């Protein structure tokens, strides 16, 4: 793979970079052509954009050295970007629609840094065969494996059928989004029965909130496969835009086992990872296990992520935590009832008919009662669900009233620890802990419930112990 002459991007990258701008300028040119003398300047601007992009492509060279990747560009100013292989966190291959048309693939290289966590450190576009070859050789240098295993040879731990992918796309949504979709669906049904003219808006909103995301999930996770070779995890999926990624187990910052409310009713869970620079195109954490039966999750963890398994001795929130939680939700109840009352009063005064005003009054009274009831139910679950647990190398937070999430984090990944306590919580020696760590979407905060401050302080104490005893893994911090 070493070449003194260097590699260039595939020429199709010129069109890929200019497609949006050229399309806009072409429409503008077509609209004003023949009506104004500015049309020729639009055409010259299009030509200039193509020339500049061509020069950018021609003057950019990529070198694969023995221990580093070098990207050089010599335009008005000279640019040289050097990426040591030892710093690479993940290597991904993506194929969008344009890539399929031109027979190319985009190699996305990410390093374990919060500076470019949202964007790849380097995106290299080559012909499909060359991209596969380069990724294979890079994998051999970075992950100590060739990353060249045929799909029919690899046997995934779980075979996800189209039905499984469809279930994941529908029931794996956040609960808030599902509730919003249900409201729009009920609005649509009521409009149909009342034979009203207002069916269009709720129907469009339901399609935007529920149907399109579900279809997008099916297209995104189509042909989902995940397997582990040595200390490297491989993930691939996609229908229109294929996605292949490889990353070392040591680059994982946290493991998140999630259960949205609807999935919990089906006794299913999914697993997401926090790996710096490995966010999906929609900015979400990478998924390594779609919604699967809860009894399969321990199997996936033991086979794929045994490094994140330890003996749990979970702590529930102490009884005194009920008081600050109840206070917080009481404030939410008061604010919610005030808002509903104001809207209800304004709605009643809008109608002159007393019968309709009474009907509106009953509707808003029911809404207020249901809101109060729901908030106090949430307060109860907020108290009973939150857990905290510490192991020798890992610690765990369990959060979520509607969408349950268990976050297993390595001490060596923690960037900032913040322990806060309100006036009421301090009275009972309670506090909340917020952990900041580098994640696939830049920086992620994980918060705990209310626990004794002395127990939460043990996290920072344990990190200091690992530093003093030499247990701390500096590779985890991206050093």
From TrEMBL:
Keywords: Membrane, Transmembrane, Transmembrane helix. The chain crosses the membrane at residues 12-32, 38-57, 165-193, 199-219, 326-347, 359-383. Residues 57-114, 222-280, 391-438 form the YdbS-like PH domain. InterPro entries: YdbS-like_PH. It comes from the Archaea. The keyword Membrane applies. Pfam families: bPH_2. The keyword Transmembrane applies. This is Membrane protein-like protein. It comes from Methanomassiliicoccus intestinalis (strain Issoire-Mx1).
């Amino acid at each position: 793979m070493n070449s003194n002459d260097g590699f260039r991007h595939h020429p199709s990258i010129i069109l890929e970079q200019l497609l949006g701008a050229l399309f806009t300028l072409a429409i503008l040119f077509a609209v004003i052509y023949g009506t104004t003398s500015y049309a020729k300047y639009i055409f010259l601007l299009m030509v200039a954009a193509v020339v500049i992009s061509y020069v950018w492509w021609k003057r950019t060279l990529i070198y694969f050295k023995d221990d580093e990747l070098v990207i050089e560009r010599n335009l008005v100013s000279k640019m040289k970007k050097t990426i040591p292989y030892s710093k690479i966190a993940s290597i991904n291959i993506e194929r969008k629609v344009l890539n399929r048309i031109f027979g190319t693939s985009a190699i996305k290289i990410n390093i374990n840094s919060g500076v470019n966590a949202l964007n790849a450190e380097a995106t290299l576009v080559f012909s499909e065969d060359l991209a596969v070859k380069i990724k294979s050789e890079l994998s051999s240098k970075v992950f100590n494996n060739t990353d060249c295993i045929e799909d029919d040879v690899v046997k995934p731990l779980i075979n996800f059928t189209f039905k499984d992918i469809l279930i994941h796309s529908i029931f794996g949504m956040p609960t808030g989004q599902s509730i919003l979709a249900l409201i729009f669906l009920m609005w649509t049904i009521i409009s149909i029965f009342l034979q009203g003219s207002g069916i269009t808006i709720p129907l469009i909103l339901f399609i935007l909130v529920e149907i399109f995301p579900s279809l997008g999930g099916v297209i995104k996770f189509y042909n989902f496969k995940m397997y582990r070779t040595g200390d490297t995890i491989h993930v691939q999926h996609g229908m229109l835009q294929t996605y292949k990624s490889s990353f070392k187990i040591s680059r994982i910052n946290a493991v998140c086992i999630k259960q949205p409310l609807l999935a919990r009713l089906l006794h299913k869970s999914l697993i997401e990872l926090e790996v710096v620079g490995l966010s999906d195109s929609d900015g979400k954490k990478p998924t390594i296990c779609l919604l699967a039966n809860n009894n399969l999750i321990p199997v996936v963890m033991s086979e794929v992520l045994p490094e994140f398994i330890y003996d749990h001795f979970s702590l529930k929130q102490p009884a005194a935590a009920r008081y600050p939680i109840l206070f917080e939700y009481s404030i939410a109840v008061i604010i919610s009832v005030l808002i509903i009352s104001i809207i209800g009063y304004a709605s009643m005064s809008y109608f002159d008919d007393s019968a309709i005003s009474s009907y509106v009054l009953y509707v808003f009274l029911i809404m207020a009662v249901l809101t109060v009831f729901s908030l106090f139910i949430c307060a109860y679950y907020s108290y009973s669900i939150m857990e905290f647990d510490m192991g020798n190398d890992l610690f765990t937070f369990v959060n979520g009233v509607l969408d349950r999430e268990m976050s297993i984090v390595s001490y060596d990944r923690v960037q900032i620890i913040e322990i806060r306590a309100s006036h009421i919580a301090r009275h009972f020696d309670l506090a909340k802990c917020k952990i900041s760590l580098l994640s696939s979407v830049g920086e992620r905060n994980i918060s705990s419930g209310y626990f004794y401050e002395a127990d939460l302080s043990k996290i920072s104490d344990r990190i200091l112990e690992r530093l003093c005893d030499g247990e701390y893994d500096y590779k985890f911090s991206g050093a």
